[in-house]
Amino acid sequence: MNALKNNHKLGATLAIVGILTGLLILFLMASIFNINVDGKIADGRPDEAITVQIAFSTLSWLGVSAGALWVAVLYGFINKTDWAWFWGTVAATVQLLVGFFPMIPPSSIGLPAPTVWVFALAFVLWFGMLFVGGVPFKIMAFAFASGLAYVLTYIDGVGAISRFQTEAKGFTNAMYGMSQMVNWWGAAVWAVFIFALIKNKAWALPVGVFAAAMSMFGGFPVGITDVIIKGRFSMFLVAPVISTGLLIYMLLPKTKKMLAEFQQS
After folding, report:
1. CA distance 197 to 191
2. Which of 130, 131, 190, 196 has a CB 3.0–4.6 Å from the CB of 201, allowing a cystine?
3. What angle do CA 37, 39, 45 make, to 5 degrees?
4. What is d(CA 213, CA 59) in angstroms, rounded to the nearest whole number?
5. DSSP 3-state assignment of 45?
6. What confidence score (pLDDT) does residue 241 get?
7. What is the C-alpha separation between 36 and 54, in angstroms, rounded?
8. Are residue 245 and residue 121 in the same domain, yes or no?
């Protein structure tokens, strides 16, 4: 790992891959967009067709923008700056989400899910940037676990768009509508926490507590509502449950000690 730290040549190589990944996102998302919308309609789920339109569009915008950010990261590595690895991590974090969620809708109706390649590339890029940045393994593992909460909290927000359309107007319908953006904002806060954590910021822990609370406030109400309506376990609960576990972990004395040691390193 020490051999990879501050390896600007490796960083530049990964940045080029990140740029190409951004272009790949644009191509793949454009190629699967209408196919998935039409597939959902043919499957009798017009609500999910609308959800795909919203989610795929916004994720493509973010993913392509992350590809552009990789150009700045490449510039940073070529000029051997100290900030390039961090912004590369930011770009890879965005591309991880962009690669992961668009695998779900096509898989549910038997269509190909080509963004798995985006996810795989972003996975390599994310860990590559952390190695180049010299992030300790324990911090890396903590950031990865937080990344799971980040992705799943975003997915809760997507699911709420569909549920809002299918439930009859009333308290339940309104619950999904009122909670939808709480989950997307929560995912954004989780991302900020990850960035603060790997950047060794003293204010990382309070942001992490905030992110966990956002996921819990956005996920538990719709998850419990879903259990009552469907009479079975709800996938809405996965994100808030993981966030609850991370919140408990963040409040442990050993976690505070680990972060304090990282800040002093």
Report:
1. 10
2. 196
3. 80
4. 24
5. coil
6. 96
7. 12
8. no
What's the CATH code of the domain at 248? 1.20.140
Structure tokens at 64: 């392509």
106 and 148 part of one domain? no
Of 134, 160, 185, which residue constitutes the final position of a domain? 134
**Residues 158, 70 within the same domain:** no
Residue 56 phi, psi (nearest 5): -65, -40
Note whether 28 and 16 are within 8 A (CB).
no
Give 10-residue mean pLDDT values along the chain (265 residues). 79 97 97 95 91 95 98 97 97 97 93 96 97 94 96 92 80 84 95 96 95 95 82 88 97 92 81
Residues 54 and 176 in one domain: no
Q: Where are the alpha helices (DSSP H) in 101-203?
A: 104-107, 116-132, 137-166, 171-198
* Rounded (to 5) percent helix, strand, coil in the chain: 85, 0, 15
Domain co-membership, 247 together with 143: yes
44 three-state secondary structure: coil
* Two tokens, residue 145: 């676990």
User: Using CA atoms, how far apart are residues 218 and 15, in angstroms rounded to an integer?
Assistant: 35
Quick one: pLDDT at residue 75? 98
Write out the two tokens for 1: 């790992």
Helix 238-251 and helix 137-166, axial crossing angle in degrees, nearest 10? 150
How far is Cα 164 from Cα 145, in angstroms, rounded to an integer? 29
Does residue 36 sit in the same domain as residue 123?
yes
